[in-house]
Amino acid sequence: MGHRVRYGTSSGNYTTTLDVGTATSAQIADPPAGVTYYAVVTAYAVASIESFPSAEVSFTSKATISKNADLAALFLNTAPLSPPFGSNTLSYTSGAANTTRSITVTPTVAQANATVRVNGSLVTSGSRSGEIILNVGSTNITVTVTAQNGIIRKNYTIAVTRAQAGRTRDLDGNGTDDLYFQGPGGWMAAWLMNGSGGVTSGRTVYSGSLGDWKCVGMADLNRDGVSDLIFQNDLGHIVVWYRNASGATIFPAYLYNRGLGDWKIVGVADMGGDGSPDLIFQNGIGQIAVWHLNGDAVVISTGFLFSAALGDWRVVSVVDGNGDGNADLIFQNRAGQIARWLMNGSGTVATSSIIYSGNLGDWKIRATADLNRDGIPDLVFQNSSGQVVGWLMNSAGGATGSLTIYNGTALGGIRLL
Questions:
Q1: Which of 168-177, 219-228, 240-249 has the least mean pLDDT?
Q2: How far, in Å, are 70, 159, 294, 306, 316 from residue 286 at the CA level?
């Protein structure tokens, strides 16, 4: 015994049947809102014996409350997501250049009545979020969708990795900075590093002669994503070699073709926070100056970073040492002591400290490179015999370990860059 409900969307035409058994009510699952249904009820004793239908009734369905908490689309304004977006994929990664200090997220909900928040802030579906500040390293972003019923929520997460400032040494794209050398006469070579202090192979960068031109820096001067080489000669003239993704020089160009006295380039880094690398100079008495460049490697302004004498302290690297996105100055004196100036991003010193107070003999810092892929630049030393060691650094300026990279003598006279 039981009842059957027969219904349809036009009077007298019942296209759907529900067998409700002995229940005294029935429900149509998720009917479209605003549709009028016509229904009759019949009773049956056995499956094949059924009564005449009841009088017809009609009703109009009301809107249902959605349980859909999916996204239909998700975009960053800087780079694609990995893996590509899918509504059922909840975890993503993406990357950003060091010059990218903030990003926006554009989420689009799958159901119009759902709401969406990015890091807790309400965002209109299909519109950009507010600017999200990126730290150097990983920044986590959470996109939360709440269904119309207010109960069901779904969290999508994005881990965005902002590259370390000054990462221009990864010649083979394996995520590890490589070591560059320049020999007598000007030829240049690179050691491709494996991420644990070992050399996987060598590569010739330039096999000709360069006279008194010395490679003094590496930076992406034209913002094409490829590291370029900067040279200076004894007169002070400055030339850049613009390179392609394979490391080949596309064309050289003069940046400056007049004398500079004893001012020498000691670093190339963004000192003004505009995303363009700048040239940092130091003269014989220790004064430090900066030439601010635009994205076309044109000098737009100059100024002092430090106008007093510094004795025998010399800038040996300009690199973001503490991961705050600002390029810092690293110094070494003749005895080997090492100091660090943490900069504030506008050309002034935030704090300064001695990070090594001992004596290092003739070991000199020749390069800074992330040798162990932790996102922090490490100190690379070379002595007069050519031997090379690395100090693995933390963001506080302390050495956490050391690596012997080369302990032979075949590099005497060959300069680590």
A1: 168-177
A2: 60, 42, 26, 8, 12
Q: Contact at 8 Å (CB) between 98 and 168?
A: no
Strands of 349-356's sheet in order across: 314-319, 328-332, 338-343, 349-356
d(CA 416, CA 380): 9
Percent residues over pLDDT 90 in the chain: 63
List of residues 6+ apart from 52 with CB closer than 8 A = 42
Q: Spell out where 283-363 has E strands.
A: 288-293, 299-306, 314-319, 328-332, 338-343, 349-356
Angle at 247 between CA 176 and CA 165, to 5 degrees: 45
Strands (E), 64-152: 71-76, 91-96, 102-103, 105-109, 115-118, 121-123, 132-133, 137-146
Residue 262's alpha-carbon distances to 15, 232, 257, 259, in angstroms, are 94, 12, 15, 9
Does the pLDDT value for residue 81 go beyond 60? yes
Q: Say whether pLDDT at 292 is over 70.
A: yes
* pTM for the whole structure: 0.64
For residue 1, give the nearest of 20, 15, 22, 19 by alpha carbon.
Answer: 22
**For residue 309, what are the β-bridge partners?**
none
Round to whole Å and give the CA distance between 413 and 187: 12
Residue type, 416: L
Closest listed residue to residue 371, CA positions, set 181, 178, 122: 178
> What are φ and ψ of residue 302, in 5° steps?
-135, 160
Question: pLDDT tens, 227-240?
Answer: 899 999 999 999 99
Give whole-number Cα distances, 149 to 113, 121, 242, in Å.
Answer: 9, 19, 57
Are the beta carbons of 181 and 191 closer than 8 angstroms?
A: yes
3-class SS of residue 378: strand
Separation between Cα atoms, residue 370 and residue 213, nearest integer Å: 26
Cis peptide before 83 (omega within 30 of 0): yes
CA angle 316, 247, 390 (to 5 degrees): 35
CA dihedral 202, 416, 291, 232 (to 10 degrees): -90
Please name the amino acid found at residue 198. Answer: G
pLDDT value at residue 47: 64
The answer to whether residues 300 and 294 touch, using CB atoms and an 8 Å cutoff, is yes
For residue 181, what is the enclosing H or E element?
strand 179-182
d(CA 402, CA 393): 9
